[in-house]
Every structure is written in C-alpha cells, then in structure tokens.
Amino acid sequence: MNQRDLPSELEHWKHRSLSAEKTLEDMKKNIQSIKMAVDTLAQMLNK
Q1: Whole-number Å distance between alpha carbons of 13 and 20
Q2: Alpha carbon distance, N-terminus to C-terminus of the chain
Q3: What's the pLDDT tens digit per position in 1-47?
Q4: Which helix (H) or strand (E) covers residue 7, if one does?
Q5: What is the dihedral of CA 19, 22, 23, 26, to 10 degrees?
Q6: For residue 1, what pLDDT is reported?
Q7: With contact defined as beta carbons under 8 Å apart, do 30 and 38 qualify?
Q8: CA 26 – CA 28 distance, rounded (Å)
Q9: How far is 17 from 21, CA to CA, in rounded Å?
Q10: Do 37 and 45 form a contact (C-beta atoms < 8 A)?
Q11: Which domain of life does the UniProt lineage start with (predicted)?
Q12: Which of 14, 16, 31, 38, CA to CA, is 20 to 30 A from 23?
C-alpha cells in the first residue's frame, strides 16, 4: 500500500465504524422495543 491510499483507507474505515455504530443504535432500539413488548405481555398474563 502506498502513501496516497492511506486517506481513502482511513475514510473507508471511518465510514465502516460509523455504520457499525448506527447498527448498534438500531439494535439497542429493537431490544428496547422487545423488552417493552415482553413487559406488556407479562402484565397481561399476570392479570
């Protein structure tokens, strides 16, 4: 790899880590939704 490729390589990894962060955020939101659904279901079953 020569010196000129470095900036684009860094840009590439920055982009990848950003999209990974976004995926993580989405997963957290999904987990929150699932928790809420499970809690709701548990309340319904306990009645």
Answers
A1: 10
A2: 65
A3: 566 788 899 999 999 999 999 999 999 999 999 999 999 999 999 98
A4: helix 5-46
A5: -160
A6: 55
A7: no
A8: 5
A9: 6
A10: no
A11: Bacteria
A12: 38
Cα 31 from Cα 9, distance rounded (Å) = 33
Cα dihedral across residues 24, 30, 36, 37: positive or negative: negative
Which residues are CB-contacts of 40 (< 8 A; sequence separation ≥ 6)? Answer: none
The single residue listed with the structure tokens 């010196």 is 3
Q: What DSSP string describes 8-34? A: HHHHHHHHHHHHHHHHHHHHHHHHHHH
Query: What pLDDT score does 11 carry?
Result: 93
